[in-house]
Design a protein that fits this description.
This protein has one domain (about 10-165): Alpha-Beta Complex (Nucleoside Triphosphate Pyrophosphohydrolase). Helix content is about 25%, strand content about 30%. It has helices spanning about 25-30, 80-90, 140-150, 160-169, and strands spanning about 10-15, 20-25, 35-45, 50-55, 65, 70, 100-105, 115-120, 135-140. The strands form 2 sheets. Strands 3, 4, 5, 6, 7, 8 and 9 form a 7-stranded mixed beta sheet that branches. A two-stranded antiparallel ribbon has the order 1-2. Strand 7 and strand 8 (about 115-120) form a beta hairpin. About 30% of the residues are buried.
Length: about 170
């Protein structure tokens, strides 16, 4: 018997990030409904940031660079639980506690109408990158990331420049 594939269900939220309903992933994106996501920035002991290049198979922003790990908050899930889950799913990184919470971005066009909590943790790798999610990844110094964003912002998913600007002024 084949496994039954279940569609992802997200909480739909209002302008104050309060749950007002729930909807399938395709409908949330098609209708531009506000929803939630978590982004995690993984730094190593030298202060370098691990960035991922999104797989060409992704339905949103394929083939561009993004936060170390990120993902939608599922229906009924907390931002913290999402951050822990995404680290495991995208990097194979299992953490015993949620990563450090940094700041929250409001839902807007650039975030795809996602409220985004941004987290930080420290790890050295190596990571296990699922090819359906991530094409490749690498470590980059903060100055190199800033120069790269300045020179070629189109090489990044739209939320990442907002996160970097907030983190580095």
């Amino acid at each position: 018997m084949l496994p039954v594939m279940t569609e992802e269900i997200f909480d739909v939220v209002n302008e104050r990030d309060e749950v007002v309903g729930r909807e399938t992933r395709p409908n949330v994106h098609r209708l531009g409904l506000r929803h939630r996501a978590a982004h995690i920035l993984v730094f190593n002991a030298q202060g370098d940031l691990f960035l991922q290049k999104r797989s060409q198979f992704k339905d949103r922003h394929p083939g561009v660079w993004d936060s170390s790990a990120s993902g939608h908050v599922d229906h009924g899930e907390s931002y913290e639980a999402c951050a822990v889950r995404e680290l495991a799913e995208e990097l194979g990184l299992r953490v015993s506690a949620p990563p450090e919470r940094l700041f929250k971005l409001d839902a807007c066009a650039a975030t795809g109408e996602e409220f985004v909590w941004v987290y930080r943790c420290r790890a050295e790798g190596p990571f296990v990158l699922p090819p359906e999610e991530i094409e490749k990844g690498g470590w980059f110094g903060p100055d190199a990331v800033s120069r790269w964003l300045e020179a070629r912002p189109e090489e990044f998913a739209p939320t990442f420049p907002l996160i970097w600007k907030r983190l580095h002024g």
